Amino acid sequence: MTPRPLLAVERVATHFPVKRGGWLRRRVETLKAVDGVSFAILPGETFGIVGESGSGKSTLARTILRVYRPTAGRIRFDGLDITELDETALGPVRRNMQMVFQDTKSSLNPRLRVEQILDEPLVTHGLPRGRRRVVELLEMVGLGDSHVERYPHQLSGGQRQRIGIARVLALNPRLIVADEPVSALDVSIQAQILNLLKSLQSRLGLTIVLIAHDIGVVGYFCQRVAVMYLGRMVEAGPGRHVTRSPSHPYTQALISAIPKAEPGVRRSRILLTGEIPSPINPPTGCPFHTRCPVKLGAICERERPPRYRTVDGGWAACHALNDRPVVAEAQEE
Ligand SMILES: Nc1ncnc2c1ncn2[C@@H]1O[C@H](COP(=O)(O)OP(=O)(O)OP(=O)(O)O)[C@@H](O)[C@H]1O
Ligand SMILES: [Mg+2]
């Protein structure tokens, strides 16, 4: 029997009303930032979400953590349906699901010293405090007690991200959602932070969702990877498969855009033409059909492709794979 998912996301959509037009012809339209996404994450798993800017990754992250209430669908955390919970009921759940942000300049209060930054969540959630706990948290992220008195501006970008991680660890969360945690850092520092997250994940049995626009980063870090395009997931599967021999033409295009792949990685040069369409008026059928190099014809324009099986529990939503078995969405139910 497969264990119960820690997080189950079922056909979730997050739409925003947006005002368009001048003052004479002002109208409200719907921007479909996330539009029918299903996936499940098992306890202890690392799950990567990758996609171009604007594909809906951060909106999905905020929806999972119930910063946003989804327009449709269900979110279950450790079996508990959190889709409609109000702030009071969400309180104890929030402690267990925490976010690591990209921009530590704005996510860490510049007027607080490291000690106060790490103390804050302990106070909020009524957890044991004290300098010993702060130093313990610093040690977990590879920093020492010499950092206790410093302000964020006295730290390097990498050190600030370590503090951001320590602040999240203070609450002993079960799920960490890291939204582009390394994309603001120098390449040499990126690997250090990813390795830190990786070692914390295995030491503490954390479940991590890692969001990145760089497929190389998620492929290195994650057991499973999902690819987003225009608010939808188009492919998901084992990290190695999705990043080395992807099945969906969009994933193939993402891989082929990496300047230098590792030796032995199968690559085909695919150049995408055209702009990414607007999530206000997304294409009908397959969202990728307007840019797809292997488009079949009318079916791609009209019918939303089902999920076709790839390897090891993976799938890709592409009509060109229609000789394969279909995988049901939200199978975890
Ligand atoms: N609060 C909001 N109100 C209206 N539109 C929004 C809001 N937040 C995001 N969007 C729109 O939703 C779409 C998805 O945005 P989102 O930030 O989730 O993408 P992303 O994949 O995280 O992009 P990036 O890689 O640039 O961080 C974009 O078109 C964005 O403009
Ligand atoms: Mg984002």
Structural account:
Helix 6 (157-169) packs parallel to helix 7 (187-204). A 9-stranded mixed beta sheet has the order 6-7-8-3-9-10-12-11-13, sandwiched between helices. It contains 11 helices and 13 strands. The mean pLDDT is 92. The chain is 30% helix and 23% strand. Adenosine-5'-triphosphate is lined by residues 16, 18, 31, 33, 51, 53-59, 213, 279.
What's a quick, concise take on this entry?
The chain is built from 11 helices and 13 strands. By secondary structure, it is of the alpha/beta class.
What is the chains' assembly state? single chain
Using the alpha-carbon principal axes, give the shape.
globular
Q: What is the CATH topology classification name of the domain at 1-78 and 214-333?
A: Rossmann fold
Provide the spatial order of strands within the biggest beta sheet. Answer: 6-7-8-3-9-10-12-11-13
Which ligands, by name, code or SMILES, are bound?
Answer: adenosine-5'-triphosphate, magnesium ion
CATH superfamily of the domain at 1-78 and 214-333: P-loop containing nucleotide triphosphate hydrolases
The helicity comes to 25-40%
Instruction: Pick out the low-confidence regions.
Output: none
Distance between the termini: 13 Å
Number of strands: 13
Q: How is the main sheet built?
A: 9 strands, mixed
Q: Would you tell me the overall average pLDDT? A: 92
The computed structural class is: alpha/beta
Please trace the helix and strand order, writing H or E for each element: EEEHEEHEHHHHEHEHEEHHHEEE
Using only CA atoms, what is the Rg?
A: 21 Å
Count of helical stretches: 11
Hey, roughly how much beta strand do the residues contain?
A: 15-25%
Question: Which CATH class of the domain at 1-78 and 214-333?
Answer: Alpha Beta
